Amino acid sequence: MGNFIFEEINLMCIYNTGSRTGLIEALNEMRGHLEPDETELRELTDSALGKLQAMSDAEFAELELFPDFDE
């Protein structure tokens, strides 16, 4: 289910709207504001978006989206 990496989880926590489709929309909107030199964040966002789009709403509901900024 997703196999999200630590950085993707933290990114999703920041933009989480409570639903998979809402999070996808929020990440797409944020991605549109990235500068050309923000390639690492763009790649991270694209990776998270791909995994979110491939999962179901039920699978999304099982995710524990709590940031862990200490790692």
From TrEMBL:
Q: Which domain of life is it from?
A: Bacteria
InterPro entries registered for this protein in UniProt: TTRAP, TTRAP_sf
Name of one Pfam family that matches:
TTRAP
The molecule here is called Transposon-transfer assisting family protein
